[in-house]
Amino acid sequence: MMNLVGAVVNNFQNIPRVIPQPFYLSTQRRRFSTFYPQQHPQVAPPKTLPPHPVASIDQTHGMVHSPMYRAGDYETLRVERDAELDGLLTITLNRPAKLNALTIALHDELQDLCAGLETDPTVRVVVLTGAGRAFSAGADLSDRRPLPPVNDLDRQARTHLGGRTCEMLDRLPQVTIGAANGLAIGGGVVLLTCCDLRLAAASAWFSIPEVELDLPLTWQALPRLMRELGPARTREVAMLCERFTSAEAAAWGLVNYVHPDAEFPMAVHTMAARLLSMDPLSLSSTKRACAALANAMVPKEVSWSDAEMMLLAHRQQALRRDG
Helix 104-117 to helix 161-170 angle, to the nearest 10 degrees? Predict the structure, then answer.
């Protein structure tokens, strides 16, 4: 009897033990063994990282252009790394002849740029400004894509183009400075509200004329304005559609500081330098905390129907036009 028990025990001990693995580990190993059959199934294959792009200095503009953000890559934007401040990137809306009006192409390019910046740790501060005498005259309402929309979902997506630009600018991990070098109208004001800090030249002025144009104020503008200006002032600027000065914008909380026009570029540069002197992780964490607290005050999700409201407004305009 004892010999039989001993034989069973010995056979049991000789059975190879299989230790169950978590599902995600086994899946990962199967994936690697499929694509790398010569590798040991428990060891991920080494990854060869591409060399870090080497920036080059443009002597003409005194800026540094990295291979990822070359000014020539965009038709409606000028994108420049600062030659003196490592980590500073300046985005210039570059349609000065049209007062930097926001076209479909400009939105597409700005969204493409924001997508790249979202995962670029070498840029810590982003300045958004305009070329010429304007920051931006707002949306170019006459601009259309060449092909008609395929259905109502496509129409909805097209009306939300500016809203997506604002969302991407709003969630950039870098600290953003909105530099209103001149007039900012409608969508131009909304782009500024997406920035963490805002400066204005003394000659700059602002206007939100959407209601006067029979359009709702969308792009999640109302939650942002409510947080910055408060309910009463937001109703005033959004409903009366009257222009206001940079001094009034500072008094109401839309911009942090106003500087004389001749001193404005240096003031923007000085603020960026101050931010870049801070500990990167502490600054980034503070930005994220401020964003979360601001959204808790007036959640941007309350404007979930912005695209539908704009689509309805366009249809109403078409009905009035067609009689």
Answer: 30
